[in-house]
Amino acid sequence: MSQIIPLVRPYLSGKEAEHVQQVLHSQKIASDGNYTKACAKLMEDRFGVCKVLMTPSCTSALEVSAQLCGLKPGDEVILPSYTFVSTANAVVLCGATPVFVDIRPDTMNLDETLIERAITSRTRAIMPVHYGGVSCDMQPIMAMAEQHGLVVIEDAAQGVNASYEGRALGSIGHLGCFSFHETKNFACGEGGALCVNDPALVERAEIIREKGTNRSRFLRGQVDKYTWVDIGGSHLPSELAMAFLYGQLEQMDEIQRIRRRIYDRYLALLQPFTDAGVLQLSVIPENCDSNYHMFKIMTDTVETRNHLLSHLRSNGIGATFHYVPLHTSPMGQKFGYSAGDLPVTEELHARLIRLPLYCDMTVSDQDRVVDVLHDYFPAVANPTRVRPHVIKRAA
């Protein structure tokens, strides 16, 4: 078999090693050094965020955000079930209850038309998740939040450098959370950021991030000593990780340009499949600029999805499905949910396949992915390519 084409692969943009070497030579590798500050400043300036606080993960950023909301037992937070577990965990760790709302069929984002009916006297926040680097419809979400006095926490783990109506994701809600995990567009292995867009929340965010102390004020010379003033945690990243990340953030535009080229080529190559009615492709609404984090396809049935996924994998294509809806999980059932509660989420999750997309993906790699799809759907015309080998279809 030919070499496996992975789903994702980290991309080195050029200066990561140089920046890491500078940190090693400085012997200041713990946290909040020059590179941590440089990453935060770069994103504040580029994305129009009041204050960016770097964290060791998006999970950390979400947990700080939930604490900033003052969540307590009995409170409720509205979020999609189709998301990574960290979104819900941040709510549950505060003793609050996740209220799962169904998703839109086109973007697989939180369905803004269903939020109003989920709001109760116990609702404290809304957590829209920007799936695949495509924004939720933030205007009505922010309007509902203002009307009901709710905090909006954007889970923009996959949305760094994407935008909605010209505004960067993570800069629209009261709080925003980024991920720089190795699977993301801009990566440092493990890393994250908290975007604080409400100035009134900045000081407490710093305290929670610094283990519940006012150490940040001490380092700025605003107090003569620091002490324990609130409940907090250790939410500071390694300076080594931030040095690596800075090399990625310097090349944001180039990385995004490469990903868009691959994404657009998929759209062109797979158009015959949509014309034949055998696949649906990714959708980006006109008022959204994506960061091209992923390319997904939708089959007609779960049976087709499972067979096609097996076929792709048996031919060395690292395709995959994605999240198992949280409301159908064992923890989701503890909150009273069961299969059938969110029909759109359940149907779409069962028909989705993610195709490989990474910056150093070659034209021949992409052609090979498409050839395997053509072999599975032989009735779809493929006039521009001749498959170089016969591929056995999975049973």
Describe this structure in words.
The structure is a single chain. This protein has 395 residues and is of the alpha/beta class. The protein has helices spanning 16-26, 34-47, 58-68, 85-93, 115-118, 138-148, 202-209, 215-219, 239-249, 252-275, 302-314, 330-334, 343-349, 363-376, and strands at 51-55, 76-80, 97-101, 123-126, 151-155, 163-164, 167-168, 175-179, 192-196, 280-281, 288-289, 295-298, 352-355. It is globular, with a radius of gyration of 22 Å. A 7-stranded mixed β-sheet has the order 1-9-8-5-4-2-3, sandwiched between helices. The protein has a 3-stranded antiparallel β-sheet with strand order 7-6-11, with no helix packed on it. Strands 10-12-13 form a 3-stranded antiparallel β-sheet, with helices on one face. The protein contains 14 helices and 13 strands. The chain folds into 2 domains: 16-249, 3-Layer(aba) Sandwich (Aspartate Aminotransferase, domain 2); 252-376, Aspartate Aminotransferase, domain 1, CATH 3.90.1150.
Number of helices: 14
Strand order in the largest sheet? 1-9-8-5-4-2-3
The CATH class of the largest domain is identified as Alpha Beta
Average pLDDT level: 95
Radius of gyration: 22 Å
Q: How many structural domains?
A: 2
Number of strands: 13
- The outline comes out as globular
Taking the alpha carbons of the first and last residues, their distance comes to 18 Å
Question: What does the secondary structure layout of this molecule look like, with pairings?
Answer:
Elements: H1 16-26, H2 34-47, E1 51-55, H3 58-68, E2 76-80, H4 85-93, E3 97-101, H5 115-118, E4 123-126, H6 138-148, E5 151-155, E6 163-164, E7 167-168, E8 175-179, E9 192-196, H7 202-209, H8 215-219, H9 239-249, H10 252-275, E10 280-281, E11 288-289, E12 295-298, H11 302-314, H12 330-334, H13 343-349, E13 352-355, H14 363-376
Parallel strand pairs: 2-3, 2-4, 4-5, 5-8
Antiparallel strand pairs: 1-9, 6-7, 6-11, 8-9, 10-12, 12-13
Helix pairs in contact: 1-9, 2-9, 3-4, 3-7, 10-14
